[in-house]
């Protein structure tokens, strides 16, 4: 059974003749963050922070990535904080980044769960 070719319409479309295609392309162009108001930190940066936090726990606890992920999520639930914010705080503490400003609940959660891994006393 051979392949049949379908006829191709080579006449210019009405949209192309009147520049509609160019208009559609301009409408769907990504706008700078200032125009859209999109913070940009939740998606990709959140994923990067979570992956980095998992890496910190894998290195310090010698656990699997799945175990590290579960530990982060369960710790976040236990302390009623967002998992991505907790991951971000964990990475900042691992980097010894004192320039970052985190709320007390995040720092307490990191210290209680993993403080001993960093040589910090665990808070109760």
Question: What this model shows, in words?
Answer:
- The protein has helices at 14-17, 20-27, 33-36, 44-61, 65-78, 83-94, 104-114.
- The protein has a domain at 44-118.
- Residues 24-41 have low confidence and may be disordered.
- The chain is an all-alpha fold and 124 residues long.
- The protein starts with 13 loop residues before the first helix and ends in a 10-residue tail after the last helix.
Quaternary structure type: single chain
Roughly what fraction of the amino acids lie in strands? Answer: under 5%
Helix content bin = 55-70%
Count of separate DSSP helical elements: 7
Could you tell me the mean pLDDT?
77
Question: Which value, in Å, is the CA radius of gyration?
Answer: 25 Å
Distance between the termini: 74 Å
Shape: globular
Structural class: mainly alpha
Order of helices and strands: HHHHHHH
Question: Regions with pLDDT < 50 over 5+ consecutive residues?
Answer: 24-41
The count of strands amounts to 0
Main beta sheet, described? none
Question: Could you name the key traits of this structure?
Answer:
124 residues, mainly alpha, 0% strand, single chain, 57% helix
List the helices and strands and how they pair.
Blueprint: H1 14-17, H2 20-27, H3 33-36, H4 44-61, H5 65-78, H6 83-94, H7 104-114
Short structural description:
The radius of gyration is 25 Å and the shape is globular. Residues 24-41 have low confidence and may be disordered. The chain has helices spanning 14-17, 20-27, 33-36, 44-61, 65-78, 83-94, 104-114.
